Amino acid sequence: MSAVTFRGLSRPRDRACAVPSSSSGCAPSIFRWTSAGVIDFDNSARKTSATEELSFQNSRLHVPQGAYLVQFNEIVATLLDATGEVFVRSSSFRSGAVVTAGLIDAGYHGSLGAVLQVLNPHGVHLHQNARLAQIVFREMNGEVEGSSSVY
């Protein structure tokens, strides 16, 4: 890990979100899946699942036990000589919530998503812009061609 922790983290997307400059936390929007997705070998039949956003009431949301899609408010613009990873914050897993995400490709620009698994049988109460995860960027030895995947 190097000193590039904030390298690539930019302003939140169009929703209001106060992100303290001393925090590497990621603020979420939470969705439930409403259809099946299609995953294939060469993406010729790929289809992402439809989702429905869960609404915060009075800046709070009770999330029952289960699996959800998280869309973080922040936008990343990863440089060609860096990759990133999303890690769960300890306050999340102590409450029975786990965040799982893949590697952030070098050259990726856009918002990040992850899976939120609420393991606590009582669910979790999330406040709007709660920090569920943190991003760590790692500097690579050199530049690569960059991300060309469809997200």
TrEMBL record:
Q: Which InterPro entries match?
A: dCTP_deaminase (IPR011962), dUTPase-like_sf (IPR036157), dUTPase_trimeric (IPR033704)
Q: Which GO terms describe its molecular function?
A: dCTP deaminase activity
Question: What SUPFAM superfamilies has UniProt attached to this entry?
Answer: dUTPase-like (SSF51283)
State the UniProt keywords alphabetically.
Hydrolase, Nucleotide metabolism
Q: Per its UniProt record, what PROSITE patterns does this chain match?
A: PROKAR_LIPOPROTEIN (PS51257)
Q: Keyword Hydrolase on this protein? A: yes
Which Pfam families does this UniProt record tie to the protein? Answer: DCD
Q: Name one GO biological process term.
A: dUTP biosynthetic process
Q: What CDD domains does the record tag this protein with?
A: trimeric_dUTPase
Q: Which domain of life is it from?
A: Eukaryota
What the entry lists under Gene3D superfamilies is as follows: 2.70.40.10
This chain belongs to which protein, by name? dUTPase
